[in-house]
Design brief:
This protein is of the alpha+beta class. It has one domain: DNA methylase specificity domains (Adenine-n6-DNA-methyltransferase TaqI, Chain A, domain 2), CATH 3.90.220.20. Helix content is 36%, strand content 22%. The protein contains 5 helices and 10 strands; from the N terminus they run βαββββββββαααβα. It has a 4-stranded antiparallel beta sheet with strand order 2-9-6-7. Strands 1-10 form a two-stranded antiparallel ribbon. It has a two-stranded antiparallel ribbon with strand order 3-4. α2 packs across α5. The longest helix is centred in the last third of the chain and has 39 residues. It starts with a strand and ends with a helix.
Length: 180
């Protein structure tokens, strides 16, 4: 593994558009289409300032980065101007970085370099993000394998959570039938 600065691996993208699907970034769900959210999304009068996100871009919520609101996009779309779009260079496998950038050690660093008076107003600007040092596999192939492993693990966990929820519903139904 080698030591690198995030600014050597990513560059901030400031492409703007308004004619694409709106994406959201959350701590719990990463990047997902806003249309799949339970929350009401009101982008305001104009989407003209929204930033373009390409598949593989790393996007973070500049006000919630210290909580882990970051992910590598699996979608093409647009995000609020409050988000930062970091385009990876050729040495970077984005799915690996989706995990790495959420590590507790890095979350503490984001909080330390963020600007603002309180936790609720702290903002991580790209220049501060770029100054953070990380340790990463030199080989993109190794990054790929690690990222794919954790993606499979996430899928397996989701599958088991769905199965557990189904079993809980069956149990509830059975109990309801037993105790009328």
């Amino acid at each position: 593994w080698e030591q690198r600065k995030l600014g050597e691996l990513f560059e901030e993208s400031d492409e703007r558009a308004s004619d694409r699907e709106i994406l959201s970034v959350s701590v719990a769900n990463g990047i997902y289409p806003a249309s799949e959210s339970d929350r009401e999304t009101n982008p305001g009068a104009s989407l003209a300032n929204y930033k373009i996100v390409h598949f593989g871009d790393v996007v973070y919520n500049s006000m919630r980065m210290w909580q882990g609101a970051v992910d590598a996009s699996r979608y093409d779309g647009i995000v609020s101007p409050a988000y930062v779009v970091a385009r990876p260079n050729s040495e970077v496998y984005a799915r690996f970085f989706a995990r790495l950038l959420r590590q507790p050690m890095l979350l503490k660093q984001y909080q330390q370099v963020s600007q603002g008076n309180s936790k609720d107003t702290q903002v991580l600007k790209f220049d501060d993000f770029a100054s953070i040092g990380i340790s990463m596999p030199a080989s993109e192939n190794e990054q790929c394998q690690i990222g794919a492993f954790f993606d499979r693990l996430d899928s397996l966990i989701t599958l088991h959570q769905r199965k557990l929820e189904l079993l809980r519903n069956i149990k509830k139904s059975m109990l309801d039938k037993m105790f009328v």
